[in-house]
Write a structure and sequence with these properties.
single chain; alpha+beta; Rossmann fold; two-stranded parallel sheet; two-stranded antiparallel ribbon; 5 helices; rod-shaped
Length: 183
């Protein structure tokens, strides 16, 4: 047939001829699944197209490992990507897989940009709080040792300079913890 199997002497087969024989055997048998590792590597275009035509009508499970993008685009409807010890499932052919990967990359890039912007915003806010605390501290050094709220009067209900400074330092520290939590 198209795979050129009937003319072969089993004793003198090349790697490509052996591949063709195994493909023909798998396609002619009533098997529930085929595991094909680089099934197009020794086939010419006619053999590849014939194989594609046969596999499109194969009703069992088909697990293919291949670098042949044309073949993958024609045959597969699901791709399993093994990366960093994790399997991710992508629906569609190889071209669909590439589009989905590009969308993921763009999404990750956008998330990273948001992360960088949020981190910068928090760092600016923390620096502003530290600056406010330093101003309050300098004001306190210039004032007398006596608390500004002692003695009553209309300002008696206000917080002391020390507590304002502490509040600013705590706010800065809180922002620094949020920055650390971001990573």
């Amino acid at each position: 047939g198209k795979l050129g199997v009937e003319q072969l002497n089993i004793q003198t087969m090349s790697g490509g001829e052996e591949t063709r024989l195994k493909i023909a055997q798998a396609l002619s048998a009533q098997v529930h699944g085929i595991l094909a590792d680089e099934p197009t590597s020794h086939l010419d275009r006619e053999g590849i197209d014939f194989l594609i035509g046969q596999l499109k009508y194969f009703t069992g499970a088909l697990l293919v490992i291949s670098h042949d993008r044309y073949f993958l685009d024609e045959i597969v409807d699901k791709i399993w990507e093994l990366k960093d010890g994790k399997i991710t499932e992508y629906w569609g052919n190889y071209s669909d897989y590439l589009r989905q990967k590009e969308e993921e990359r763009k999404s990750q890039a956008a998330q990273y940009e948001q992360f960088i912007a949020e981190r910068a915003r928090l760092e600016r806010a923390a620096e502003e709080k530290r600056k406010q605390a330093r101003k309050i501290e300098q004001k306190a050094k210039g004032a007398s040792k006596k608390k500004s709220t002692e003695g009553g009067g209309r300002l008696a209900h206000q917080k002391s300079i020390g507590s304002k400074e502490k509040k600013m330092h705590n706010a800065a520290k809180s922002l620094e913890h949020r920055i650390a939590a971001l990573g």
